[in-house]
Please model this.
Amino acid sequence: MASESLVTKLNIDVAATYKNVLDLGSNPENTSLSAAIVIADGSGTSQADTVWSDSRDYTVGHTNFDLNAMLQLNTDGDTVRTLNFANLKLVAIRSKESAGGSGYAEIGGGTDGGAAADAWAGITTMFKVDAAITSVYPGGLLVWYNPTGGTVTGTSADIFHIEAVTANQELDIMLIGDHV
Model:
């Protein structure tokens, strides 16, 4: 039997140059923000052992994922395994729609409308409000990382909600955490 392990690298590099041309010269301001994070294999702080990914066109309406019973196609392409998250450490969502396109995707906890008792409890860690919803617009990117993670409570608070609003949305999604 093959050994399983997961090592995740998150590299972010944002750089901006701002010029405000004055009468006789300019004063460019260079600003940057960088982070290189390695999430080791395991289930402690800054560790993860489970990854779920999806790339598809979400039709207008809602899709709810049970974080305590997510299905993932194995790398052999034939078998399906069930993932049971205990904590989510990293959420990355990229819209593959053209920037300026129509519609957007709502991401968060809950069912229709986003406010429900079965919302992923960790959503409050992620957004600091109950049953929070955030939006990913065409061409947009959402990345959330918490070294200790957001807790997934089996059977009562484990729904991760995605809703394509007013137009279909093609999304790449990656959820990384540790399992039960």
Remarks:
- Confidence is low (pLDDT under 50) at residues 112-118.
- The chain has one domain: 50-179.
- The longest strand covers residues 29-41.
